[in-house]
Amino acid sequence: MSVLVLAEQRQGQFRRAAFETVREGARLAGQLGAPLHVAALGSGIEKSAAALGGYGATKVLVVEGDAYTAYLGEAWAAAAAEVAKRVSARTLLLAATSLGKDLAPQVAARLGAGLVADCVALAVTDGEIEATRPVFAGKARVRVRSAGAPLVLTLRPNVFPAGNPTGPPAAVERVEVPPCPARSRVVGVETAAGRTVDLTEASIIVSGGRGMGGPENYRILEELAREIGAVVGASRASVDAGWRPHSDQVGQTGKTVSPNLYLAVGISGAIQHLAGMRTSKVIVAINKDPEAPIFKVADYGIVGDLFEVVPALTEAVRKRKAAEGAA
Amino acid sequence: MKLVACVKRVPATDTRVRVAADGVSLDPQGVEWIVSPYDEFAVEEAIRIREKLAGSELVVVSLGPAEAAKEIRTCLAMGADRGVLLEDRAAYARDVSSVAEALAGAIREIGPDLALFGRQSVDSDSAGVGPFVAALLGWPVLTFVRKLELGDGLVRGHREIEGATEVVEARLPAVVTAEKGLNEPRYPSLKGIMAAKKKPVDIRPAPPLAPRTRVVALELPPVRPPGKVVGKGKEAVPELLRLLREEAKAL
Ligand SMILES: Cc1cc2nc3c(=O)[nH]c(=O)nc-3n(C[C@H](O)[C@H](O)[C@H](O)COP(=O)(O)OP(=O)(O)OC[C@H]3O[C@@H](n4cnc5c(N)ncnc54)[C@H](O)[C@@H]3O)c2cc1C
Ligand SMILES: Nc1ncnc2c1ncn2[C@@H]1O[C@H](COP(=O)(O)O)[C@@H](O)[C@H]1O
How many domains does chain B have? Predict the structure, then answer.
């Protein structure tokens, strides 16, 4: 009756979302009085897996092999389900990343488990897990429990704190699972140009909407982003206008993000945009229309022309950094 | 080629959510219902394949209340050939597994080469049913597909992952879930709407499957504490910066 965390890595590196999931799994296991197991799939990950110890794993079960170099749902789901069975997992946690969202339902199907996707809070109530997840594009939430079956839960990245690494390195133990013939394969990966951190993993996001007026004006957002270590996002209006790629879109039909800081620049705050960013910790709005709905969810707002406010903000941050550097 | 597209009847995206008296479901009073937007991408893509490959058939499958026949008709008007409605008056009490098991049963019976789903339904927002069905059927799945190509017993999909686009190939039969950008769904033409009236919709009870999860409460999200307008124009910038650093500790 254990808790199993499936920690996600890419190219041998464990992702921050993996640390968050391990930390949360350890917390839940503690509250449930259940053993915690942590597992990872990949090739050449035995060294890096030890780092999960910093987040509460004492041991990491590693499924190693060339078959796990690239992510493939069928093979990974078969291996993950096998590990879950061996450790008698009642609760399986994954990060709600593109990989986790693809994998979790397939594992749940193989385990006869229920799926609770994209959780934003987990608690132990009456000795069982109660998960909170947004529905209706964030306009409401449900609190969900098991109806008797094991549960596979995915955790929205950036919501659960990973904290600083504390524990000693984890022991790593290899587990062998029977290979699963896969009828799919990755034939190519095109890395998005110039982007190192994905929107969903960014801790600060500066998004520009229709108010930006044109693709060339995003330069001022990029300058601000560089100063404050942010990634640039967009509203659907600016994506539909062809100013920004779809991968930048935040909202109901774009990405769901919850950074520490979200700056909405020239974005009105339509309900479908809020769906993607309302769980951000701090929201700032810069908009010339004082009636814009974005001000209703913003913690801080400036009413004004973005072409005046944004460069001033960039300049102020730059000056502040220079002053601190000199001090 | 035989194609299935699974579509869900959902509240329109601008619906104001009110919690029903039971405390766990949406109050349906005054709600307008639509085909879940991502499912339209799935249907459109399937219609395009069917139009290209002679002798193809597209079956639209939905699990929902009797009223969901309307959403099936919308898809028939777009160009699908026939519909299957797995009727369940309490469809909205189902969870991912109890929907997926029912759909997988219907798909197995129809026996398509390709089953298309939306990336996620815009009410439950799980993005779970498509890959869940694939695993039940033992088929490969390509999720969040933005570009699709078919050839020689294979399907190839471009899917966005964090910071990259991945191209994945799968052998048929397979499941695909549609992401925005895959296509521009057409509006049903008047001719399509007329034709849809004559297309068959097979209505049968959905298998009564117990959900594996239970909703204990549907709630409105916590209201964000009222924010403050720091000021007007660039004069407000120093104060904003101070608040972000000292009060919010966000910079
Ligand atoms: C099914 C569906 C799904 C959708 N999904 C999404 C989604 O995923 N993401 C999304 O964002 N939207 C989505 N939308 C669209 C959404 O309804 C809005 O149309 C969209 O968010 C508007 O984008 P915007 O705020 O950039 O543009 P607008 O609403 O046009 O707002 C522009 C804002 O910029 C301000 N402005 C203009 N010039 C300046 C200036 N010089 N200085 C300061 N402020 C200025 C204006 O006051 C205005 O508030 C969806 C809609 C539907 C129906
Ligand atoms: N009741 C249903 N009937 C038909 N298809 C459904 C139903 N529920 C979900 N789906 C399909 O599964 C996809 C993902 O749904 P979900 O897992 O609820 O986000 C949807 O976009 C639909 O294609």
Answer: 2
Helix, strand or coil, per DSSP, at residue A155 = strand
Please report the residues numbered 12 through 71 in chain A whose beta carbons come closer than 8 angstroms to any beta carbon of chain B.
none
How much distance in Å is there from the Cα of B80 to the middle of ligand 2? 18
Residue B194: give its domain's CATH number.
3.40.50.620
Q: What span, in angstroms and rounded, lies between the C-alpha atoms of A71 and A151?
A: 22
Query: Does B189 lie in the same domain as B231?
Result: no
Contact (CB<8Å) A143/B11: no
pLDDT tens-place string over residues B47-57: 999 999 999 99
The answer to the question of residue B211 being in a domain is no
Min Cα distance B198 → chain A (Å) is 33
Give every strand in the sheet of A59-64, ordered side by side.
A114-119, A151-155, A89-95, A2-6, A36-42, A59-64, A171-174
Quote the tokens at residue A326: 């000199």
Q: Does A146 touch chain B (CB under 8 A)?
A: yes
Q: Which residues line ligand 1 (CB under 6 A)?
A: A 209-211, 235-238, 249-254, 266-268, 270, 272-273, 276, 287-289, 292, 305-307; B 13, 37
> What average pLDDT is seen over chain A?
95
Q: Residues lining ligand 2, CB < 6 A? A: B 6-8, 36, 38-39, 42, 62-64, 91, 96, 99, 103, 117-118, 120-121, 124-130
B171 to A184: CB separation less than 8 angstroms, yes or no: yes
Structural domain for B25, as ranges: 2-205
B185 and B108, same structural domain? yes
Residues B192 and B244 in one domain: no
Residues B247 and B134 in one domain: no
pLDDT at A194: 61
Task: Examine the pLDDT at A12 and tell me if it is beyond 70.
Answer: yes
Residue B210 within any structural domain of the chain: no
Q: In this complex, is the C-beta atom of A163 within 8 Å of any C-beta atom belonging to chain B?
A: no
In a domain, B215, yes or no: no
pLDDT in tens, A267-287: 999 999 999 999 999 999 999
CA of B32 relative to ligand 1 center, distance in Å: 23
Task: Please give the sequence-ordered ranges of beta strands (E in DSSP) within A59-183, or none if there are none.
Answer: 59-64, 89-95, 114-119, 121-125, 128-135, 140-146, 151-155, 171-174
Q: What's residue B183's pLDDT?
A: 97
Provide DSSP, A185-223.
EEEEEEEPTT--S-GGG-SEEEEE-GGG-SGGGHHHHHH
In one-letter notation, the amino acid at residue B178 is A
CB-CB contact of A170 with A228 (8 Å): no
Structure tokens at A154: 């995915």
Comparing CA positions, the residue from A259, A315, A274, A267 lying closest to residue A288 is A267
* Ligand 2 centroid to residue B39 C-alpha, Å: 8
ipTM value greater than 0.85: yes
Domain identity same for B87 and B175: yes
The alpha carbon of B160 and the centre of ligand 2 are apart by a number of angstroms equal to 20
B126 and B89 within one domain: yes
Q: Which residues of A touch B232 (CB under 8 A)?
A: 302-304
Cβ-nearest to B230 among A105, A118, A300: A300
